[in-house]
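Milestone M4 deliverable, item 7.
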Amino acid sequence: MYEIVEGVLEALRLIVTLDPDVMAIAVRSIVISLTATIIASIFAIPLGAAINFGTFPGRKSLINLIQTLYSLPTVIVGLLIFLLISRVGPFGFMRLLFTPTAMIIAQTILILPIMTGLTISALSAVDPVIRDTLRSLGATRLQFLVNVLKEARFAILATVAVGFGRAISEVGAAILVGGNIAASSFASSTRVLTTAISLETSMGNISQSIALGIVLLVIALGVNLAITTVQHR
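Output delivered:
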């Protein structure tokens, strides 16, 4: 018990003094996960809208498949990307393995089905009266989609927050394709919060692990508070 208390106190000291290593890992985690979330949003929101309002054979099966991929193991995604970008893989010539870019790709693929499925749910929850009114007023397809997205904007925003939370908290894919490398250069280092916590814990550096864990929780809490504030306004 004493070791845990001592670890928490040391963790608070590292955070309050803005320890350079802790802050660098935290910033890198945010940059990688935020980039993946933005890329996934660009594809997931239009795709979710197309599926929700589309009428084509196999639509329900496609939605079921997307929802099944919610629980896609991160190590499976990491293994898939690893095989594609490794030295013997089809994209090995791009030399992406053990780089932040590889981690962004893995996180994007991981959260893409989640954000797509949640977008479908958000749009399907829009009041049918609003949709019928837009159609009766002769709205074009683009006008219809824009106005429905506006109605579902808070749910869409929550979808983006869920995607970011999933990205920044995953560890399996990050280790497989990133390698948890602590390089001197910020751009070439691949050590993020989750992989650093795993490493520091295995090395017995409990205080460092707790500090990184607290930072991760603070980031998650900050995102949720920001979403809640926007929704209340």
